[in-house]
């Protein structure tokens, strides 16, 4: 295997499949500090930029106006598991913003958190829009629309002022010209943006640096995620457990199709990675492999997260037949 | 994109993810005729060689001895959907061989065929070993053990004479030295073999050529698969629909982790491919892309199978937000 980053899937001790990973590590001055594969690869950020999409609600005064709690703000940045406390927080945001649940534009989706999905089924309830992993983001968007007096109707569409605001926000933080951003429709129906990994990594370096400096919007947002990691993802989820295990030294956010973004506020670094083939099973090992290689997490922290970094492969007989592991060699770049 | 084979995942018109595909096209003389990526890549064959694993049952006289039907023989080669007629055929093989259902070593698994899985749940029945997609293979193995007077106990283990026979059979057909085969434990608990793609492709070219020549074992086996395509996979499955659409001109078999093997009996060609990252979603588009590029299927046949070749990506709002498509450039090799 040549220089670069992979996630290997082993059956016994033989590599059965491998995932290529593209990585950009960027500092808050926008300098590429380390990389693997194609750091300038343009890919859809998907849910990895939910924090950027939640920022206008803080900066424009919506959090104060509606009296949102830190946990509710964290949920606006979340791909949550649809656990009862997530659903409760999403409903609370909607209630405070005076928006009915039916205004949510995201599709109905069973909770990702399996016990919560089972409990719904057992109660004879179908999954609703409120259980969609993006319902916090959507509730926050409805609150922002209410704040600005924009119509709730069609808030998810590209031409709506709310999505135009999201577009501008993502372009600003990623320092990407708007005409260099490609767009598509996300799993939940809103606009999503294709951005170079370098831009995504830079955005998280800048966001975390701004939070460290005490800039109010980024400061409150990052603090909310660190204080309420369970609202950023949920039980048995890496985004949550990484904040917990590192005591908030690392704030990370997953995106669909093999994207992960992380910020190390204390070090002024942002990290963005894309599993080339979009595999979810490779994104978590890749992130932990990069963080360990950078020295951004300790071997003990990696060990505490080993179930995410090097998960076992089980067969239908419940035998352990293999495992997944990251193999990361970063190319150092000039600072 | 340089020379080679990929499966692209597009969101709107922008590539979001891409899967690399390694391909070997080999004739029945073992000559590499066309390729993409690394045709000698060694990978686990998984379920793609179930036909080779069923062959001893025909050649040693087990099919005649136990009076197995063609449909039952086809099921021995299947990764089936657990539909009622699959379960019935698996139970029939076991009954004819005098083996109880509890002798199956594969783990319990819900039927892959969703309506059959729902029906089981609605009936308050848990999934059993008989619903495992490999239960036909296991039933056939138990019949072979009975035929030879081998103990049923432990028939799935590497050291059992039955798995040693499978090992020899795979080595023989793939023309791979036994010490060049790596082994692992499959999803259903039996031994699985890592073989170069060239060997896998050659095995299917040879198997189909032998069937065309009228060799009894391969002839009966391939005929059974062509006559009973629904027993090779099931409703809504490419292996089944490809045999149907081509009138048996192509016989193909999927394997887990992105493997597909196909034989074109009339043309003396075998094809083996591996999606590097193991993605199921890419294996079907890749196979159809290769077959079209080789001229082994017509544009009309590709069109009839377009739901497999270029599936749509839908979001939680049931909107079509993208699609998957194969991009295959084969390198021609000397004949």
Q: Could you explain how this protein is built, in words?
A:
Two copies of one chain form a homodimer. Chain A has 335 residues and is α+β, with helices and mostly antiparallel strands. Chain A is built from 14 helices and twelve strands. In chain A, strands 1, 2, 3, 7, 8, 9, 10, 11 and 12 form a nine-stranded antiparallel β-sheet that branches. In chain A, strands 4-6-5 form a three-stranded antiparallel β-sheet. In chain A, a hairpin with a 4-residue loop joins strand 2 (14-27) and strand 3. In chain A, helix 7 crosses helix 8 (197-213). In chain A, 59% of the residues are buried. The A-B interface holds A 9, 11-12, 14, 16-20, 43-44, 105-109, 132, 182-189, 192, 194, 257-258, 275-279, 282, 315-319, 321-322 and B 9, 11-12, 14, 16-20, 42-44, 105-109, 132, 182-189, 192, 194, 257-258, 275-279, 282, 315-319, 321-322.
Count of extended strands of chain A: 12
SSE string of chain A, helices as H and strands as E: EEEEHHHHHHHEEHHHHEEEHHHEEE
Oligomer: homodimer
Tally of alpha and pi helices of chain A = 14
Largest interface: A-B, 42 and 43 residues
Give the fraction of residues assigned to helices of chain A: 40-55%
Derived from helix and strand composition plus strand pairing, the structural class of chain A reads alpha+beta
Largest sheet of chain A: 9 strands, antiparallel
Calculate the mean pLDDT score of chain A and round it: 96
Morphology call of chain A: globular
């Amino acid at each position: 295997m040549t220089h670069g980053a992979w996630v290997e899937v082993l059956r016994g001790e033989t590599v059965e499949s491998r995932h290529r990973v593209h990585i950009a590590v960027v500092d808050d001055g926008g300098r590429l500090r380390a990389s693997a594969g194609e750091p300038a690869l343009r890919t859809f950020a998907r849910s990895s930029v939910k924090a950027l999409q939640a920022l206008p609600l803080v900066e424009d005064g919506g959090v104060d106006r509606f009296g949102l709690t830190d946990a509710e703000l964290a949920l606006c940045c979340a791909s949550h598991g649809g656990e009862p406390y997530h659903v409760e927080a999403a409903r609370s945001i909607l209630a405070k913003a005076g928006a009915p649940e039916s205004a949510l534009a995201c599709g109905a989706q069973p909770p990702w958190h399996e016990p919560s999905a089972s409990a719904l089924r057992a109660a004879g309830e179908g999954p609703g829009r409120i259980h969609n992993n993006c319902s916090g983001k959507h509730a926050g968007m409805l609150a922002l629309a209410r704040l600005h007096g924009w119509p709730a109707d069609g808030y998810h569409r590209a031409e709506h002022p709310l999505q135009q605001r999201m577009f501008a926000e993502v372009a600003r933080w990623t320092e990407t010209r708007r005409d260099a951003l490609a767009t598509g429709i996300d799993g939940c129906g809103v606009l999503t943006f294709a951005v170079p990994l370098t831009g995504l990594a830079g955005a998280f370096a800048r966001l975390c640096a701004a939070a460290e400096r005490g800039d109010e919007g980024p400061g409150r947002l990052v603090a909310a995620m660190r204080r309420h990691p369970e609202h950023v993802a949920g039980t048995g989820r890496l985004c949550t457990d990484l904040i917990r295990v590192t005591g908030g030294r690392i704030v990370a956010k997953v995106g669909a199709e093999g994207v992960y973004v992380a910020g190390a506020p204390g070090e002024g670094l942002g990290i963005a990675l894309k599993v080339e083939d979009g595999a979810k099973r490779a994104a978590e090992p890749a992130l932990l492999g990069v963080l360990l290689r950078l020295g951004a997490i300790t071997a003990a922290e990696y060990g505490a997260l080993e179930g995410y970094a090097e998960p076992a492969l089980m067969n239908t007989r419940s035998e352990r037949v293999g495992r997944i592991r990251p193999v990361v060699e970063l190319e150092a770049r000039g600072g």
